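[Solved] Which block belongs to which protein?

Original post:
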Amino acid sequence: MKQSLNKISPFNHRTDMPASLFVIKKILAFWVCYIAGLFIAEGLVILLHFALGKNMLVGDVFEAGTITLITYYGYIIIAGAALLYWKVIEANAATTIVLAFAVTLIVVMSRHSSQGLFVPPENTLAFECAGITEGGKFPVENTGRGKDISPEFVIKNLSPHAKTFIITLEDLSHPMNRFTHWVIWNIPAADKIPKAIPAGKTLSSPAGAVQGIGYGLHRYAGPKPPKGKSHRYCFRIYALDCKMNLKPFSTKSKVLNKAYGHIIQQGEICGYFE
């Protein structure tokens, strides 16, 4: 056992082992690169926030555009960790390049698979959200400082092929990027989605709709930033060509991954609350 563990250690360049152990060794090497790069990148982000007077503990973070830019720098750091590892341990230029590319690609795909799936511009879903305009302020009744009820949505260009909707509400200013406040799916496709959707796992109205796990546990949970802070929030509506079979304990990530390949329209409205 000790010899086998020594062989598959990602911190040596031994190759005298069965193919199965060699595969395990490379998988461990991948995770070493990923975790090391992730810790370095996240540590630098935290240090950068505090160095510039931002307190992440109370939700005081950079704007969404800056966070996105920092995220891509993080990918470079993760790729750099892979390059350094393979240069020091493997000393194999070709393998170095392949691993760095693979690590970065997998990280990018995993990070973005649940953060808004790409839909061509011609398939953009146009909708209105009662009381909320793009870039405007959320009405108090739709927030955790008021009645905390979901707004009415009016769909403008619904595809005849749409069967159901997914709706998500995300906090774009939260330290956990795109923090999920609300996720609901299997809403029957229609020109209007009613306001004040009640709490519950599987609903009778809208018929068959299912609410998952977020800041709101099987319910709508509106904006509620730390007092004195302004946060940016975004409603996203996805029109699907099918109904999804998912448990109510599913997260936004699981819901959107399941929806991949079935989204025919997608739109968003973003606003702020303080």
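(Second protein starts here: sequence line, then its structure tokens.)
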Amino acid sequence: MSYLKELPGFAQFKKMAEQFLDDLAGSHRPITVKDYRSDMRIYIAWLSTKNLQDPLNPRIITDYKNHLIKTSTLANSRRRLFCLKAFCKWAIKWDIIEKNPFDKIDMPAKPKSIPECLEKFELEYILKTPKYFKKKNTRKNVELLMLFLRDTMLRRREIINLSIEDIDFHGGYVKIHGKGGKIAVLPLSDDIVRFLEEHGYKGKAGPVFISNLGRRWSFTAIGRVFKKCVYVAHNLMVRDGLITEQYPGLKDRKITPHTIRHTMATILLTEGGAPIETVQELLRHTDISTTKIYLHIKPVYLKNSIKKYNPFLRKGDKNATGNDKK
């Protein structure tokens, strides 16, 4: 039995896919719609090679999943399947299909890996780098970028989407347009508010980050300047005699703006003593187990925690075990 209610087949599916993408454009960012459009085209192209007439049959989608796992990365496989799953939810909503084929399909599991983090001194070197950019506007953007990464732990996409209208200068808050169209309000540090006011942002409108060509900073532009920041930071370490055989520095490591997010979350939890629920709110993790990953990044933190909370290891505390000396 077909999962489509009427006129099952490839041609109708293509028309529905276009309608889905058109509806998506009204509630999602252009980059998300662009990614979904690409993902739907990949599925349609795969279907066309198979001459399949029931595009939403669970068996066919499972075959497609296996094809993705063999030919693509796990991240791309998951994204393309989530796109198809979103399409099915949309089709259910509009009573186009009878039931969701993904009820019978398991998504490829995403392994929970410990994210790359910097040592605190490494982060401090990267935070020093804005002054080494020659162009005034670029230097200003990089300095503000570092403040946002350090103090708000925003994702790169969230940073480029920031508009001055999203900022409450009086209260010290910013409205974030996050993943999946979610909106959150986060506090801004005094350093960020002061920087924005001193550089004339208050009272204006438009993007917070503007390129030298007068356009909103792009995802790749941030990646480019951040890569230069890491390069400069590494050279500063060379200058200061920190690079040895035991410590090669930052040069050949994969360090991105997201690494700062991971690093700051780790610092807040393991050094700052912030409650895990607070960090979860700042990072906007739906599942607190995602935030807990940062507690396992530094073995020394676990070691110190055991010393602190295990009464048998508290040296010098006569009542450590809770028993009075007789």
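Accepted answer:
You had them paired correctly. Confirming on the second one: Residues 56 and 301 are 49 Å apart (CA to CA).
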